[in-house]
Amino acid sequence: MVQTEKSKFTLWLLAWPIFVELLLQLLLGVVDTLMVSRVSDDAVAVVGLANQVFQAMMILFMTVASGAGILIAQKLGAKQNEEARTVAIMATTVSGLIGIVLSVVLYKEALPLARLFQLEDRLLPLAQTYISIVGSGMVLTALTAALSTVIRNTGNTKGPMITAIGMNIIHILFNYGFIYGAFGFPQLGLTGVAISTLVSRLLATCLLLFMFISAFERRMTWQDLIVFNRKLFGAILKIGWPMGVNMSSWVLSQLTIYTVLATMGARELAARTYLNTLESICFMLGYSIALAVQIQIAHLYGAGRMKEAYRSGYRGTWIGLGLVCFNSLILFFTFKSFLSFFTSDVDILKLGFSCLGLALVLQPGKMINMGFGNALSAIGDTRFNMIISLISMWGVAAGLSYYLGLHSGWGLAGIYVAMICDEYLRGLLVVIRWRQMKYLRRAEANKVNAANLKTGASVTESAGTSLHA
What we know:
Blueprint: H1 2-8, H2 11-37, H3 41-77, H4 81-108, H5 110-116, H6 124-135, H7 138-153, H8 158-180, H9 190-213, H10 230-264, H11 266-302, H12 306-342, H13 346-354, H14 356-378, H15 382-407, H16 412-436, H17 438-455, H18 462-465
Helix pairs in contact: 2-8, 2-11, 3-4, 3-6, 3-7, 3-10, 3-11, 4-6, 4-7, 5-6, 6-9, 7-9, 8-9, 10-11, 10-15, 11-12, 11-13, 11-14, 12-14, 12-17, 14-16, 15-16
């Protein structure tokens, strides 16, 4: 049984289902972008901006889900299965309640939200339709995110992967039917894409709930919905609220950047949306490694295996960096064909081609930042990430985007330069922080102290330095 538990949390077994899941989720976005581009480039611009709005709203429940996921992996590593189960229940119910509130707000306030981000008047009706329909299902997004995070951090990364496969198949079929009027569906354009998104998320939520019921040694029951442990919920928030601020900082800074893009025009907005889709394909393998490393390190940290946790941070990040660099080279040589497949607008194509080199330089910086940043989060060192994010994302990414993009007239290229500076600055800072091993030293010292209390020996000073061995 011990060997089975260890093999369950190996990097490869954790990473490959995450990669497939994220790839399929990305394909859902690519299918959206590709099929919506057949409606119009204006519709693509609306979907790109609307998705940024949804990501901003998601922070409220992802704060709980992310903190809970790390705590679950730590508790399972420490063999505290009942506490891990309680954390999972609270994360799901609280996320669902937050999702209900967000669904109501997005459905009723779709038009004011669209106006808030300086969209051109001709795009407002499209934005109102898409935001109100997809946004009304935010409760499904909340439940899907919480359930996937919980299930994944128990070591079962295949479950969310299977869900992603089913979700993509349904979404593609419904998209095709609603956009082209196939299979007897009414031809609804962007409205049909929104409905398709809603239906696929509903089915994904149902499947994840089925998996969630038996995710722990003791099955879930209806009575568990009212379970609440103040101490454990406090532990969730202690880890999660800095992560929430970090995510908020990223999403809101991206919204600010998208607002700057919107003032440049629909072509710049559409070009960034297309580029972002292709960049995500390039980065996906590295991102899956970073998520797997976070789960693995949290489990090792909970189990008291500090030396292995420290080494895993380096191993996972360097593997991810190699994969990202390799994918960047592939994208460099195939980019023209990919982008031409999405749009035939000459101005959008020129914008995309002119920013290709900058987009690829951005990717290794993102991997270093993501790999070591997730490693820090896995051991509970989330406040550091929060502080550097607030400073760099706003002072460098958003501030420099405005200065270079609008004030200096660099346009989309200026925005990419700003994002590159932000990612590499934060990447350097998290590497330095990981090497300092502050939280690992503290946990190792606590473990040694506890062992010494049992044996009556004096406290040694070898806890911190032994991590380098």
